[in-house]
TrEMBL record:
<dbReference type="InterPro" id="IPR007060">
    <property type="entry name" value="FtsL/DivIC"/>
</dbReference>
<protein>
    <submittedName>
        <fullName>Septum formation initiator</fullName>
    </submittedName>
</protein>
<dbReference type="Pfam" id="PF04977">
    <property type="entry name" value="DivIC"/>
</dbReference>
Length: 107
């Protein structure tokens, strides 16, 4: 009887070991699947962020170009040439030695 109890215990231990091995294998396989899925998701996000970075860099370059143009315009606005040009165009002013010719209006 004692020997029969040992053989039952051995079978029970083997069965328990197999179940533990199956359980561990299932957990490892599940983790591998989850890591693969999350890796694909992260790659997709990385591509999206690279696209956004390119767009933002293009906007930065555009704004830097615009800032340079505005700085050049600011310098031009402070010149005497600009003041004279605006006075002629908007106010109709002329220099004392200039003659202003206006086209005649035909009826």
């Amino acid at each position: 009887m004692n020997e029969m109890g040992k053989s039952r215990r051995k079978r029970k231990d083997r069965w328990g070991n197999r179940m533990a091995l199956i359980g561990i294998t299932f957990v490892v396989f599940s983790l591998a699947v989850i890591v693969t899925i999350e890796g694909a998701s992260l790659k997709e996000k990385e591509l999206e962020y690279q696209y956004r970075l390119q767009n933002l860099q293009a906007q930065v370059d555009k704004e830097q170009s615009r800032a340079k143009e505005l700085e050049e315009y600011r310098v031009y606005v402070q010149t005497k040439q600009y003041v004279e040009e605006v006075a002629k165009q908007k106010l109709g002013l002329v220099k004392p030695d200039e003659i202003l010719l206006k086209p005649s209006q035909k009826k």
